[in-house]
Amino acid sequence: MRIFDPHIHMTSRTTDDYARMAAAGVRAVVEPAFWLGQPRTGPGSFADYFDSLIGWEPYRAAQFGIVHHATIALNPKEANDPRCRAVLDLLPRYLDKDRVVAVGEIGYDSITPEEDDAFERQLALAVEYDLPALVHTPHRDKAAGTRRTLEVVAASGIAPERVAVDHLNEVTVATVRDSGCWMGFSIYPETKMSPPRMVEILKQYGPDRMLVNSAADWGVSDPLLTLETGKAMLAAGFTEDDVDRVLWRNPVEFYGQSGRLDLTGAAAGADEPTFAGSSIKRGGS
Ligand SMILES: [Zn+2]
């Protein structure tokens, strides 16, 4: 099984995790810029963090044969802090970088006017830089928050197939499917989505535009829940090709829209080729 985790915060994980992930078949990850738990007090600490996401972390991942890309944004939670808003002016510098494959995580946390403004401005940046967008949905009042999220996405003019709406569940999946956006699911050990529930959703909605991630970070989370979801799919009668589509080809297709996905360094398994087709990596910068 080859696995591409399209949403994982490796900054908060150890090398033990990288080793376990590599052994489990994880060969590529995308790390979205997010909230670090401790509130940041100004744009400088964001710049250092963004530099780490495109410099240090890909280097660390490469030691384990895992290819690392990032998405860059001012996250919804810190969009509310006036000390951090100047980060929006820093973003263009990063959205030009080779290893940045989307604008994200953007979207709503508490649905404030400040979040509205940051969300709209960053969707406009995604259009301007011709990048996909990774959109976080709020954990509270999820159905209403997701509907509002989709309205803002539609109004921005970005093509729906270039948007992934993440942290979905049984309540929100149909709305997002009908919007034409990609559907992201974060599989957690205790809360939210579990591998068995994910399998039921895949049975009902099929593998089209589906993205499964561990969203592992500094909270209770598990970078191997992508593998567990793949195993649960096989146990439920899905084919290995279905699993490969959901856990590898779908994220390659979604982030490949950036023209910057370069999977050349992904460790080859004994039975499967690396995925470094010329259609994925754009020539030049
Ligand atoms: Zn996240």
Summarize the structure.
The chain is an alpha/beta fold and 285 residues long.
Describe the protein in words.
The chain is an alpha/beta fold. It has helices at residues 15-24, 43-54, 56-62, 87-95, 113-128, 142-156, 173-179, 195-205, 225-235, 240-256, and strands at 3-5, 26-32, 67-72, 100-107, 133-136, 163-166, 182-186, 210-213. It has an 8-stranded parallel beta sheet, with helices on both faces. Strand 3, helix 4 (87-95) and strand 4 (100-107) form a beta-alpha-beta unit. It is globular and about 50 Å long. The relative contact order is 0.15. The protein binds zinc ion. Zinc ion is lined by residues 7, 9, 32, 34, 105, 215.
Q: Strand order, main sheet: write it out.
A: 1-2-3-4-5-6-7-8
Q: What summary fits the major beta sheet?
A: 8 strands, parallel
Secondary structure tally: strands = 8
- Give the helices and strands as they follow along the chain: EHEHHEHEHEHEHEHEHH
Q: Approximately how much beta-strand content do the residues carry?
A: 5-15%
Mean pLDDT: 93
Give the CA-based shape. globular
Would you tell me the structural class of the helices and strands?
alpha/beta
Integer-rounded radius of gyration: 17 Å
User: What is the helical fraction, as a range of percent?
Assistant: 40-55%
The oligomeric state of the chains shown is single chain
The DSSP helix count reads 10
The low-confidence parts are 270-285
What compounds are bound to the protein? zinc ion
Please describe the topology of this protein.
Blueprint: E1 3-5, H1 15-24, E2 26-32, H2 43-54, H3 56-62, E3 67-72, H4 87-95, E4 100-107, H5 113-128, E5 133-136, H6 142-156, E6 163-166, H7 173-179, E7 182-186, H8 195-205, E8 210-213, H9 225-235, H10 240-256
